Amino acid sequence: xxxxxxxxxxxxxxxxxxxxxxxxxxxxxxxxxxxxxxxxxxxxxxxxxxxxxxxxxxxxxxxxxxxxxxxxxxxxxxxxxxxxxxxxxxxxxxxxxxxxxxxxxxxxxxxxxxxxxxxxxxxxxxxxxxxxxxx
Length: 135
Known about the structure:
Blueprint: H1 5-16, H2 28-54, H3 62-73, H4 75-92, H5 103-121
């Protein structure tokens, strides 16, 4: 069963924002890294769904879908998506010589992913799509 992006974001929020009185056996850095993995999965699924709606052939190569997003979703949305995806990717990877991501940093990314989910779910801006006469 595949979880929806909203379910993944909710699970990430639960990892980051523990309820008062709850005993957590996981360290904050580990919870933040797990939340980053969930958030990146949500962003990837949303990008896949976006490209499936706009042009299904674009879902094959991840690098291409990021590069071309500016033409279809606008400069600001593409920049925010690249920045957020890169930051989450860096936070997902474990290195013995680095500190884990801070929960506050991942919480900021959670807010950005939530905004990107809404932006990418909105109808694609056809005005920014190049026509054959422009190419």
